[in-house]
Amino acid sequence: MLTVNDDEFWEVVSPVEFGELPALQDAVTVVGYPIGGDTISVTSGVVSGIEISSYVHRSAELLGLQIDAAINSGNSGGPAFNDKGNCVGIAFQSLKHEDAENIGYVIPTPVIQHFIQDYEKNEAYTGNLIWVF
Q1: I need a surface site. Which of 39, 60, 62, 75 has the fewest CB within 10 A?
Q2: Which residues pair with 18 in a beta bridge?
Q3: DSSP 9
Q4: Distances from the Cα of 105 to the Cα of 8, 68, 126, angstroms
Q5: What PANTHER family does this protein's entry cite (predicted)?
Q6: Which pLDDT does position 131 carry in this prediction?
Q7: pLDDT score at 48
Q8: Is the dihedral of CA 110, 111, 116, 121 positive or negative?
Q9: How far, in Å, CA of 82 to CA of 78, rounded?
Q10: What is d(CA 70, CA 104) in angstroms, rounded to the nearest whole number?
Q11: Under DSSP, is residue 50 helix (H, G, I), strand (E, B) or coil?
Q12: How are the residues of the chain apportioned to helix, strand and coil, as percentages rounded to the nearest 5?
């Protein structure tokens, strides 16, 4: 978990609210800072799949959202918002294939909340995400 040592920082920021797991065809907006860019990138699309996905960085299979909003190189780690402005997940990978365009994957809020609860309970990440789904 990250923090900022200057307490004044927290006086001017508002926390992001987590939203519920979106449904198929719900709108999503992904915000990130892609490689080679000078400003924040915003892409939009819809949820096109909700399924157990392979998390390449974790070598695990967990619940994931497939979206058709572009997740450009460097955008990984950026939030995905619903149409109410609530965070419904974190962009984490995209499918790079000659026959596929704009297929991205998002770690949904139930997985994120489980991670946060694990961290708060144990004061460290224990890696216990297997039982989530």
Answers
A1: 39
A2: 87
A3: G
A4: 35, 9, 24
A5: PEPTIDASE DO-RELATED, PTHR45980
A6: 45
A7: 94
A8: positive
A9: 13
A10: 6
A11: strand
A12: 15, 35, 50
Between β-strands 104-108 and 27-32, what pairing exists: parallel, antiparallel or unpaired? unpaired
What is the pLDDT at residue 3? Answer: 80
State the pLDDT at residue 132.
Answer: 44
The token duo for 74 is 């460097």
User: How does pLDDT run along the chain (133 residues), one tens digit per residue?
Assistant: 678 889 898 898 888 999 999 999 999 999 988 777 788 888 899 999 999 887 766 667 889 999 988 777 766 678 999 999 999 999 886 555 555 556 788 999 998 898 888 888 888 878 765 544 4
**pLDDT, position 94:** 58
Q: Which residue has the tokens 């978990």?
A: 1
Per-residue exposure over 67-86, b if at least 16 CB sit within 10 Å of its own CB, e if not = bbbbbbeebbebbbbbeeeb
Tokens of 88: 């419904």
CA distances in angstroms from 103 to 6, 39, 106, 117, 132, listed in the order given:
38, 22, 10, 29, 24
**Strand duo 60-67 + 79-81: pairing:** unpaired
Report DSSP state, residue 22.
P
Calculate the CA 35 to chain-centre distance.
18
